[in-house]
Each structure stands twice: as C-alpha cells, then as structure tokens.
Amino acid sequence: MCELFGVSASRAPDAARWLRRFRARGGETADNDDGWGLASLQNGSFQLHKEPVTGATSALFAHLCAAVHSPLIIGHVRHARYPRVNSLDNTHPFLRTCCGRQWVFAHNGLVPEILREPDTRLKGLCSPQGQTDSEYAFCYLLEYVALHFEPHASGDRLLEFDNVAVAAGLIATHGTFNFLMSDGVSLIAYGHDRLHYLEASGADPRATVIATEPLTDDAWQAFRPSELRIYQAGNLMAQSQTRSEVGVSHAVT
Fold first, then answer.
1. Which structural domain range is residue 221 located in?
2. N or C: which end of the chain has fewer CB within 10 A?
3. Backbone angles phi, psi at 140, to 5 degrees
4. For the whole model, what pTM was predicted?
5. Contacts of 123 by beta carbon, 8 Å cutoff, 6+ apart
C-alpha cells in the first residue's frame, strides 16, 4: 500500500532521521516502489519534488532527506494499484491553487468509485492531470473548500475545517481514504483506517510527525478510525471523527 509522511513544526526541525526511514519504505523496507514525492514549505510557498521511480534508490530523494529544512512537509511513497501506471502525473503529492492559496494533498487507500461521480460543480477549479482516484478525490475536497470560502470572513484558516471533515466522510464511503493535506499553514491529517502521529511536546522546535506506520521506536499514537486532526506549527488545533459509513461528520473535541 502507499504510505504517507507529514511534519508540522513551530520552525524547521531536523527531519532527516524520519525522512530517511520513510524513504526506505519506498521499496526497501516496504513494497511502495512505484514513485515518491515530497512537498515542503519554503518562504511561504511549496516546493514539490517527485519522481515515478523507486524512492529507496532515488539519488534525489536521498539528497532531499538531508537538505530539506521546513516547518511543513508532506511526503508520499506509492504502491500503484489504481491505476497501475507509473507516471509523473499519477505521483503524489498533488499541488493546486484554490481560494488564493496553494494546497498540497497525498492519499493512501482506494476510492475508485469517486471516478464515476459527476464532475465537480466548479468547472476548471481542479482538473485532474493524471488518472488516479486520489487526484479526483483531492479535487472534490477543494470543491468543498471553495464552495464555503468566505474571502472577507474574520478569523483564522480553521474556517474550512468542518467542510473538509464533511467531505472526507463522504469520500470515505467510497472505500479507504487516509490523507494528508495542507494550505501552507495547517497540516490536515485524516486517518480513515490507518495513520499514526508523534508529538514532540516540550521540544524546541515543537513538532508533530505523521506517518502511515511508525518510523522509529518512539511513542507513536494511532489515529482513531475516521479521525481528522488539524495541526498548526506543531500544535493540535482541532480534531473530529467522521461517520464515514453514512457520510456525515461530528466534532468530538
């Protein structure tokens, strides 16, 4: 299966020890050898590197493990299943602009029925460039964000949180839908059936690391089924648990 990796921190941590182990999951310690990608926030914008090749043997990925210093990172190693096509367009993460912001998204699981849903209501908002169910699901998430976006509303960027939670629950009814998503400020993590987090409380910088499977011997915690968590600068800002079996969501804290 594909695997996810994410970091939210108060300032750029030394993520090399986590990234190197994650890179190994791309074809060495796991069979996710159909592509890799890494998005990192640099000076307010995302830099995206990805290749449709085995991550564990990629010289570029090895270089980035040591070179990337960022307070916000999303990574992915791919085990191609739907479709079984290795191409740059089918390689995660995906990057789009919506509501005046860059959004990055990576997915683990299968939601093939999403491809048979009607086109998004906002034509041209997010046209998939590849053939993956993951990219189509990303477009549906952005549709929910855009439909409820209030450009003049006061407050912070948690305004879209409830809409993302509802959309995640709806999409999860189509299969398995674990994902990481970011607008450049928040790291949104949805553990439909498998995701873990490690919070470095009291550390400087404060950091939270997300991964499909624990990458170290530290005290990683498993997400509850269908749990969505949102982090900013390493801090947990909000969380909810969706009832994906009926496509609705409700806040639990």
1. 3-251
2. C
3. -65, -40
4. 0.91
5. none
Task: Express each pLDDT in 91-124 by its tens digit.
Answer: 999 999 988 889 999 999 999 888 776 554 555 6
- Axis-axis angle for helices 161-172, 133-147 (nearest 10): 140
**pLDDT tens by residue, 185-242:** 999 999 999 999 999 867 789 999 999 999 999 999 999 999 999 999 999 999 988 8
146, two tokens: 């855009």
Tokens found for residue 245: 């079996």
Quick one: CA torsion of 131, 134, 138, 140, rounded to 10 degrees?
80
Rounded to whole angstroms, the Cα distance separating 7 from 40 reads 9
Helix (H, G, I), strand (E, B) or coil at 43: coil
Number of domains in the chain: 1
CATH code of residue 25 = 3.60.20.10
Cα 120 from Cα 62, distance rounded (Å): 38
Are 196 and 210 a contacting pair, CB within 8 Å?
yes
